[in-house]
Amino acid sequence: MITAELPVVPSSPPPPVLARRAWVEQVMGTAVSVHVRAVEPTRPDVEAAVARVFAHLRKADAVLSTWRADSDLLRLQHGEADDVHAWVADVTELCLEAEDRTEGLFRAWRARPQGRTVFDPTGLVKGWAVAGAAAHLDVVPEIAYGVGAGGDVVVGAGSGVAGAPSWRIGIEDPRHPGEVAKVVTVRRGAVATSGAAARGGHVVDPRTGIPVERAGSATVTGPDLLWADVWATAAWVDPARVARLLPERDPAYRLETV
Fold first, then answer.
1. Residue 67 gets which letter from DSSP?
2. By CB atoms within 10 Å of each CB, which of 85, 180, 208, 232 scores lowest?
3. Would the CA dihedral through 62, 65, 71, 76 be positive or negative?
4. What separation in angstroms does the CA of 143 have from each of 27, 35, 62, 65, 197?
5. Taking the model in full, what pTM does it have?
6. CA 135, 168, 123, 198 torsion: positive or negative?
7. Partners of 30 in beta bridges
């Protein structure tokens, strides 16, 4: 009789239990929330990184706000300053790129009364600023994070995280406020939604100059919140056209309509 001993394989340790902590501040005219999952989310390095997230957003507001008379952007437009933060030029270039990518469905230059054209990058700035702010969390070891700002969400993980946990992000039903119409699961990436349910006709069709006001919403998921936000705005203007453009122009992004 032949016998053999089966090797004893030690069981792998269970995954650590992640606690969750949230911070909320009013920045850029909206409530911004930061959610962190970690074994110890009260660590000083986590606190410091979250503080940098909000500081980044406050700086973006100070530079690029179209509501603050003392912002770099408005002082430049009013002829009160020539030496402004480099972010003004950066965002201007991104707006030009966004207009090209979307074939003009996103446009930051708008006609005012008497035919005057004004640069208004509001439709790009929030997504760009939140994506930049979230990058401060990418360098924090052993955390997963989510940052939400007025319908836009970016999620990711810090350094040393092999398998970041997934986040389930609900898309509100614009016809039934408070109810969730769809849920998307994202491990690393962004979700951006545009519509008229919360803020009315704040998105203008650049082809007609008329605010887009109808039922429904447009949500775009993808790797970068900046471009998810741009495409969501463009899709709210013309969802059928964006559905055709996305696979060609930005195949990493996906459109969901409600």
1. S
2. 208
3. positive
4. 23, 10, 29, 31, 34
5. 0.90
6. negative
7. 27
Q: Alpha helices, DSSP H only, in the chain? A: 44-64, 72-77, 86-101, 122-138, 225-237, 239-249
Question: What does the pLDDT profile of the chain (258 residues) look like in tens digits?
Answer: 333 444 555 556 666 788 999 999 999 999 999 999 999 999 999 999 999 999 999 999 999 999 999 999 999 999 999 899 999 999 999 999 999 999 999 999 988 777 788 999 999 999 999 999 999 999 999 999 999 998 899 999 998 876 778 899 999 998 888 899 999 999 999 999 999 877 778 899 999 989 999 889 999 999 999 999 999 999 999 999 999 999 999 999 999 998
Interacting residues of 81 by C-beta distance below 8 A, sequence separation 6+: 72, 75
DSSP assignment of 166-203: PEEEEEE-TTSTT-EEEEEEESSEEEEEEESTTTSS-S
**Domains located in the chain, CATH noted:** 19-257 (3.10.520.10)
Distance from C-alpha of 214 to C-alpha of 82, rounded to nearest angstrom: 41
- Residue 136 in contact with residue 52, Cβ under 8 Å? yes
The CA–CA distances, whole Å, from 22 to 35, 173, 197, 241, 244 equal 4, 24, 26, 38, 38
The residues facing 26 across adjacent strands are 31
